[in-house]
């Protein structure tokens, strides 16, 4: 017997019972499951017990407004990737920006038009599914990866990235703020997929952010910027090349530096090899990859590094 398809769960947060009733009815007609909360603290409690697929959040509420509620939702690693759509009677651009800066992905104005609301919900549910697919694939591969928006604001991360960036306890918020600044400045220079940059964050403990590099993997289908965290010695990337392209350890190291534009002489200095030995390794790399020159080999390496 086929089980019924799981319904997407929408958490609706609004201090107006009338508004809650109308939205609940629209969601039910659209085949979506609604959870309701009348204020921010209640919403946080519900979300922690049952992670929703999307949150509809009133911007202006007593006690804790929607902006602060959204910020607190995003502090939870389990909730950080849940899309938040703000509902507001405010049309001022500054208030819209406040919602996006708090972690929202979209907004609708009140009075809410049900058809428009459902259409926007479906778009963001689909984007979230795409994001979860990338997240799950990277997590299964053991990759330390994370995604931000174009302004560097945190969207989601694999457990490996959370651990390497030391995003825990009281250090989480200041470290995310520092990371956002660093990522935003780099994105302003329009890096190409495969480009790398040193990540200079103040270390919290041995091996923390100060010893890491970022590799830009490109934009996801959901419009997020995807990054991989790497150790500065390049050992992880050469190991990836070794496994994926069936090379020896030394051949993978040589290919990694070829992909970064180094000459045989420079590679020899880095790896403590003679240029002739580097060339011998490179000949074997060309043979195994079925290519004829450095450019083609570098291209294969970069494709492997940005997709694996």
UniProtKB/TrEMBL annotation:
Span of domain HTH luxR-type: 240-305
A molecular-function term among this protein's GO annotations: DNA binding
GO biological process terms held by the UniProt record: phosphorelay signal transduction system; regulation of DNA-templated transcription
Residue numbers carrying 4-aspartylphosphate: 58
Domain Response regulatory: 9-125
SMART domains: HTH_LUXR, REC
Keywords associated with the record: DNA-binding, Phosphoprotein, Transcription, Transcription regulation
PROSITE patterns on file: HTH_LUXR_2 (PS50043), RESPONSE_REGULATORY (PS50110)
Transmembrane segments: none
Name of the featured protein: DNA-binding response regulator
């Amino acid at each position: 017997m086929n089980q019924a398809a799981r319904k997407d769960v929408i958490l609706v947060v609004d201090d107006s019972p009338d508004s809650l009733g109308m939205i609940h009815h629209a969601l039910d007609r659209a085949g979506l499951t609604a959870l309701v909360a009348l204020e921010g603290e209640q919403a946080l409690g519900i979300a922690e017990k049952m992670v929703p697929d999307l949150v509809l959040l009133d911007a202006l509420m007593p006690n804790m407004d929607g902006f602060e509620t959204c910020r607190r939702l995003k502090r939870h690693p389990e909730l950080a990737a849940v899309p938040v759509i703000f509902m507001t009677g405010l049309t001022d651009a500054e208030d819209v920006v406040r919602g996006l800066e708090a972690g929202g992905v979209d907004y609708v104005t009140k009075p809410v038009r049900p058809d428009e609301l459902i259409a926007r919900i479906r778009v963001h549910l689909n984007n979230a599914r795409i994001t979860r697919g990338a997240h799950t694939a990277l997590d299964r591969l053991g990759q330390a990866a994370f995604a931000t928006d174009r302004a560097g604001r945190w969207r989601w991360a694999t457990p490996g990235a959370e651990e390497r960036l030391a995003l825990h306890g009281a250090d989480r918020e200041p470290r995310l703020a520092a990371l956002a600044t660093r990522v935003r400045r780099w994105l302003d220079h329009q890096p190409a997929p495969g480009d790398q940059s040193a990540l200079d964050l103040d270390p919290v403990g041995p091996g923390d952010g100060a010893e890491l590099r970022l590799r830009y993997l490109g934009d996801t289908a959901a419009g997020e910027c995807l990054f991989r965290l790497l150790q500065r010695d390049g050992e992880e990337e050469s190991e990836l090349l070794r496994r994926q392209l069936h090379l020896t350890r030394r051949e993978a190291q040589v290919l990694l530096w070829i992909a970064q534009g180094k000459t045989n002489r420079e590679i020899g200095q880095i790896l403590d090899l003679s240029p002739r030995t580097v060339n011998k390794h490179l000949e074997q790399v060309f043979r195994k990859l079925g290519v004829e020159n450095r450019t083609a080999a570098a291209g294969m390496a970069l494709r492997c590094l940005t997709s694996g």
